[in-house]
């Protein structure tokens, strides 16, 4: 049954935008323009977030300080480079629901995933396996498989893949629990994407962490499609680690730096294996250059190199907006925006459209994955030509993500209108 609190009209969408307390933030982003000068209907923040208008000045500040100060910028820049990564920590911790000591912005996503597996995938005895989604993002699978091979093992023997039930696309939580119960004694690491990139399904990290820990497994999550999308509550989830990128919902630019969460219970364990570098060393003695590695008792211990300031400036400029708005307000709007998108798309008829993303808002973020029956990529090409920027995933899914920070209800309605027109449907 369709939600009757929504209406299929441009006037209604505009009324919703007028009521939106976050509508002013749209003007703080650059909207890509079509050749006719009109903004694209940009619904692809799940792939690459838009550029905050403040990013240019943030980068220019660091370039100016580099120009004028050279190496002295480490201590005398407007935002000194020496402790620069610390400026981002508190805001990032709020975004992912962690203590500041548990979070650090560093490297990129898959690099961070490898660093975490060095510490938290330690196959011994019969406990050698990694549990992962069969439909995990390919890079996660590549990383897991290569880590297994690095330990002299065979991925064919050591990778357990979670598959949806026959005729279904999304995983059932009870099936995840059953696999952990049955194979937990052999599983060294449970590694799941907390929000699946393809289906948009969100997993209950707290339950999965509890199930895994009860069987002696380490538990980690790839939060690439969760960070900045929905409150993650990483500390309370109890997982051992999490990684994410900052270029999707967090708007930090193409290929930007990633982030790491390491639960505080691991911070003082100096026996934990890790790859080490000087930026993870005790800050008080870091520059003495002769001491044995003394890990900082926070997530910072997993840092290896001093941070790239220009890349980090872009992350910080976006985080300032998140700090101003807060994840709870963003989540409230996201539920409403995505609900309106679902309402409009479903009105086209179940004989035409199938949404594979869970209908329960608690089990999804801002993305809806839409299958159009008896259609192929030519439909996607048509809506792209008509001014929509969304995302196509083989074999037959259009991923659409109305982002709460800058998308409007009017964006959602105009997407629906374009989709309807290109399907040849009439009122």
What does this structure look like?
By secondary structure, the chain is α/β, with parallel strands linked by helices. It folds into two domains: 10-53 and 327-422, Aspartate Aminotransferase, domain 1 (Alpha-Beta Complex), CATH 3.90.1150; 83-324, Type I PLP-dependent aspartate aminotransferase-like (Major domain) (Aspartate Aminotransferase, domain 2, 3-Layer(aba) Sandwich). The protein contains 14 helices and 13 strands. The chain has helices at residues 10-19, 54-69, 73-76, 86-96, 109-120, 138-150, 155-158, 173-183, 205-214, 234-237, 309-325, 327-346, 377-385, 409-422, and strands at residues 41-42, 103-106, 129-133, 159-162, 187-193, 218-222, 241-245, 258-262, 353-355, 368-372, 388-389, 391-393, 397-400. The strands form three sheets. The chain has a seven-stranded mixed sheet, sandwiched between helices. A four-stranded antiparallel sheet has the order 9-10-13-12, covered by helices on one side. The chain has a two-stranded parallel sheet with strand order 1-11. Strand 12 and strand 13 form a beta hairpin. Helix 4 packs across helix 11 and helix 5 (109-120) packs parallel to helix 6 (138-150). The longest helix is centred in the C-terminal third of the chain and has 20 residues, at 327-346. The mean pLDDT is 96.
The largest sheet, given as strand count, sense and whether it forms a barrel, is:
7 strands, mixed
Residues in β-strands, percent: 5-15%
The helix count comes to 14
CATH class of the largest domain: Alpha Beta
Report mean pLDDT, rounded to a whole number.
Answer: 96
Largest sheet strand order: 2-8-7-6-5-3-4
């Amino acid at each position: 049954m369709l939600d009757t609190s929504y209406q299929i009209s441009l006037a209604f969408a505009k009324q919703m935008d007028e009521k939106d307390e976050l509508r002013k933030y749209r003007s703080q982003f650059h909207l890509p323009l079509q050749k006719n000068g009109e903004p694209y209907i940009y619904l692809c923040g799940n792939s690459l977030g838009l550029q905050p208008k403040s990013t240019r000045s943030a980068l220019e500040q660091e370039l100016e300080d580099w120009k004028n100060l050279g190496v002295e910028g480490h201590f005398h820049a407007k935002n000194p480079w020496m402790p620069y990564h610390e400026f981002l920590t508190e805001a990032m911790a709020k975004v992912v629901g962690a203590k500041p000591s548990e979070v650090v912005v560093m490297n990129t996503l898959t690099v961070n995933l490898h660093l975490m597996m060095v510490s938290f995938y330690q196959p011994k005895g019969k406990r050698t396996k990694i549990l992962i989604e069969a439909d995990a993002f390919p890079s996660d699978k590549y990383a897991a498989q290569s880590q297994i091979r690095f330990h002299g093992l065979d991925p064919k023997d050591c990778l357990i893949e979670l598959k949806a039930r026959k005729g279904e696309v999304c995983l059932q939580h009870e099936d995840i629990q059953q696999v952990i119960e049955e194979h937990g004694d052999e599983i060294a690491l449970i590694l799941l994407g907390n929000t699946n990139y393809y289906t948009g399904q969100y997993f209950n990290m707290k339950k999965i962490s509890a199930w895994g820990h009860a069987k002696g497994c380490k538990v980690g999550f790839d939060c690439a499609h969760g960070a900045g999308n929905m409150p993650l509550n990483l500390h309370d989830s109890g997982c051992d680690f999490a990684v994410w990128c900052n270029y999707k919902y967090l708007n930090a630019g193409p290929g930007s730096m990633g982030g790491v969460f390491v639960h505080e219970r691991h911070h003082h364990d100096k026996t934990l294996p890790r790859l080490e570098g000087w930026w993870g060393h005790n800050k008080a003695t870091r520059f003495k250059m002769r001491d044995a590695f003394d890990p900082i008792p926070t997530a910072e211990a997993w840092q290896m190199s001093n941070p790239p300031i220009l890349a980090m400036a872009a992350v910080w400029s976006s985080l300032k907006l998140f700090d101003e708005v807060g994840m709870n307000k963003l989540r409230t709007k996201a539920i409403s925006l995505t609900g309106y998108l679902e309402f409009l798309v479903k009105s086209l008829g179940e004989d035409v459209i199938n949404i594979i993303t869970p209908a329960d808002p608690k089990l999804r973020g801002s993305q809806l994955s839409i299958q159009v029956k008896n259609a192929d990529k030519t439909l996607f090409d048509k809506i792209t030509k008509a001014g929509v920027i969304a995302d196509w995933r083989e074999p037959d899914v259009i991923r659409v993500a109305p982002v709460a920070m800058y998308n409007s209800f009017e964006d959602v309605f105009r997407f629906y209108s374009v989709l309807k027109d290109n399907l040849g449907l009439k009122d």
